[in-house]
Specification:
Layout: H1 4-13, H2 23-44, H3 47-52, H4 82-89, E1 97-99, E2 118-120, E3 127-130, E4 135-137, E5 141-143, E6 153-154, E7 161-162, E8 168-169, H5 176-179, E9 196-204, H6 205-209, E10 219-220, H7 222-232, E11 242-246, H8 257-262, E12 266-267, H9 269-277, E13 282-285, H10 303-312, E14 315-317, H11 323-327, E15 332-337, E16 347-348, E17 353-355
Parallel strand pairs: 9-11, 10-12, 11-13, 13-14
Antiparallel strand pairs: 1-17, 2-5, 3-4, 6-14, 6-16, 7-8, 9-15, 15-17
Helix pairs in contact: 9-10
Length: about 350
């Protein structure tokens, strides 16, 4: 399923004779606006001048080495310390567990051309009988993009961008050559992460703004965040926290997938950078990218993805069901997620939970 805003974006930025948009085209497009002037200048100058030019990334300069060292592959997962786990445990008052992950199944909204979830049984029953009690069993074959559909968790190998040296670089400055292969990434794979258990907070921005859901493209401001914190009576995000944004957009899930995919509300780069300053560990929400789409600038698609994942090693948990938390006004809780340790994967499926 192709989000409508994505086609509109490419109608404005590519040759109208070539309007079919692949995910590879989209990733490359993140560089198009920023490098266009440099490419034009290089074409006009000599080969030596073009080679000497450097790319100026509009989101910032060199983002590596990481504060955890030049060899680090875990990013903000390092903030899940024993002290943080104990802090989170003290937030459990009632013992109620909230399932935040959605069912992974056919018919869910999908980004671009991603392959959805298909479960196939190789025979039913698959095997048996065994013994005098005639035991039978079932196996299943999963066909689909396992790490980047549904209630997905974006790892550090999910997003890269062009650096000033003209190379595509990922978290901690790892280059495309160091990271990418067709059969699983070689660096910053999801298998490097330890389980998450930390303080989680829900920012129910919809309750502050009112209505059924925030409009598509609405950019959550710092004023919205501060109003929400005051209304809920909780302290600001702290180091190692998981911050979850409720916009109401998730109410469209499997009810109107076309509308769900058109775009969404969410934080923009200003709130995104503030969360970096607060040294959070994970940012999540009830939308497919967590951040606002279209965002603050059409020339900087998915700016928060780059700011959080690539530049600062902060993880993203998308497509969460936050309605039960909001209904119970459970704004502060222990939050837990255990990424599937699939070697070389860029993300993980899973069911994050809040324990209040």
């Amino acid at each position: 399923m192709q989000p409508g805003w994505l086609k509109q974006y490419f109608h404005q930025h590519v040759d109208p004779q070539h309007v079919d948009v692949s995910r590879r085209d989209f990733v490359k497009s993140g560089f198009v606006a920023g490098v266009a002037a440099g490419v034009a200048a290089g074409a006009a100058g000599s080969a030596e001048q073009a080679e000497a030019q450097t790319y100026i990334n509009p989101l910032g300069g060199q983002w590596w080495p990481s504060s955890w060292g030049a060899q680090d592959v875990r990013g903000a997962n390092n903030r899940i310390t024993p002290a943080k786990v104990l802090e989170a445990a003290h937030l459990i008052k009632t013992g109620k567990i909230y399932q935040l992950g959605r069912v992974l199944e056919k018919g869910i909204p999908l980004f671009g051309e991603r392959l959805g979830a298909h479960v196939v049984l190789p025979g039913t029953p698959t095997g048996g009988p065994f013994g005098n009690h005639k035991l039978y069993y079932h196996d299943e074959l999963f066909v689909g993009e396992i790490g980047q559909i549904g209630s997905q968790f974006d790892g550090l190998g999910h997003i890269g961008m062009m650096a000033s040296d003209g190379k595509i670089r990922y978290y901690n400055g790892y280059t495309q050559e160091e990271v990418g292969t067709a059969y699983g990434i070689k660096k910053v794979g999801i298998e490097e992460l330890k389980p998450f258990f930390t303080r989680g907070i829900l920012l129910d921005v919809l309750a502050v703004k009112g209505g059924e859901r925030l409009p598509i493209g609405y950019v959550i401001t710092m004023d919205d965040v501060q109003q929400t914190l005051r209304r809920q009576g909780i302290r600001e995000p702290g180091e190692g926290d998981a911050v979850l944004f409720r916009t109401g957009h998730g109410k469209l899930w499997k009810k109107d997938n076309a509308e769900f995919n058109k775009g969404c509300p969410g934080p923009g780069a200003t709130v995104g950078r503030w969360l970096v300053e607060r040294k959070v560990c994970v940012v999540g929400g009830d939308t497919w990218p967590v951040e606002a789409v279209p965002g603050e600038s059409a020339d900087l698609p998915f700016a928060c993805h780059a700011i959080w994942i690539t530049m600062n090693g902060i993880f993203i948990n998308e497509n969460l069901d936050l309605e039960a938390l909001a209904a119970d006004k459970a704004y502060e809780f222990a939050w837990s997620f255990n990424p599937l340790p699939l070697k070389g994967a860029t993300g993980s499926p899973g069911n994050s939970v809040a324990i209040a």
